[in-house]
Amino acid sequence: MQLPVLKIDGTPSGKEVTLNEEVFGIQPNDHAIYLDVIQYLANQRHGNAKTKDRSENAHSTKKLGRQKGGGGARHGSLKANIFVGGGRVFGPKPRFYHTKLNKKVKALARKSALSYKAAENAIIVLEPFTMEAPKTKELLNITAAIKAGDRKVLYVLPQNSTNIYLSSRNLQQVNVTSVDEISTYTIMNANTLVLIDGVQDTLAERNLR
To answer: Exposed, middle or buried, 85 (CB in 10 Å: 0-12/13-18/19+)?
Structure first.
C-alpha cells in the first residue's frame, strides 16, 4: 500500500512511502486485539481502593444493651456494618490488577490494529516537522490542513517532542505519542493516525521481530 507524504500545509511533498503488507495488510485478529486492550486497561488500574472493616473501625467496643429482654436484636458493638459509621462488609482492598501477555500475541494485536486503520484509509503520512514553542493554534491548523478530521487524531512521532506534546495538551480531539509508547489501545482508540515519515518503517521493523 502506497501513501503520499504530505507537508504541514496539506500539499503533497512529492514523496510516496510503501506500507509493509506484513504489518499494515494482514487479516486482523480480533481476539488478539481484545486481549491486548484488556491487558492495557487493567494495567492502568492502581488498585488502591480501600475501606475499613469492623476490625479497623475506631468505635467503642462497649456493648449497646443487655443480651436479652431489650425487645430487639442483640448487638455487641457500634462497629457492626448495620450502624451508621460502622465497618463495611466485603469492601474493596488494595490489589494488583496487572496481567501478562505473550509478546507474539501483542505484536499480532498491534499489526491487526494497524491493518484495520490501513484498510479504513485512516493513516496519513506527514513529513517531519518541529515547533519552536508550544502553539496550540499551529498544531490545530496543521491538523485541519492535512484533513485528519476533528475527532480522535493521533500523531505518532519518532521520538518525544515536548513542544508538540504541549501544543496538543489543550486539544481534546488531538493526542500525541511516540513510536516507543504506541499501543494497540491507542491505535484502536484513534479515528485517524498521523505518522511522521519514518515511523511506518520503525513500526514494521519492531512488529516483525
So the answer is: exposed
39 pLDDT band, cuts 50/70/90, is very high
Beta strand pairing status for 123-126 and 153-157? unpaired
pTM over 0.70, yes/no = yes
β-strand 2-6 against 174-178: which pairing, if any? unpaired
Task: Name the strands in the sheet holding 12-18, side by side, starting at the edge strand that comes first in the sequence.
Answer: 12-18, 2-6, 123-126, 192-196, 153-157, 174-178
For 106-123, write each residue's pLDDT tens digit: 999 999 999 999 999 999
- Measure Cα distances from 53 to 48, 94, 127, 131 in Å: 16, 13, 58, 54
Q: What does the block give as the cell for 196?
A: 511522521
Contacts of 126 (CB under 8 A, 6+ apart): 5, 6, 7, 8, 142, 146, 155, 194, 195, 196, 197
Residues of the chain with CATH 3.40.1370.10: 2-46+100-207
Q: Which fold has domain 2-46+100-207?
A: Ribosomal Protein L4; Chain: A; (3.40.1370)
Residue 206: is it exposed, middle or buried by C-beta count within 10 angstroms (0-12/13-18/19+)?
middle
| Rounded (10°) CA dihedral 133, 138, 142, 145 | -160
The answer to whether 57 touches 87, Cβ cutoff 8 Å, is yes
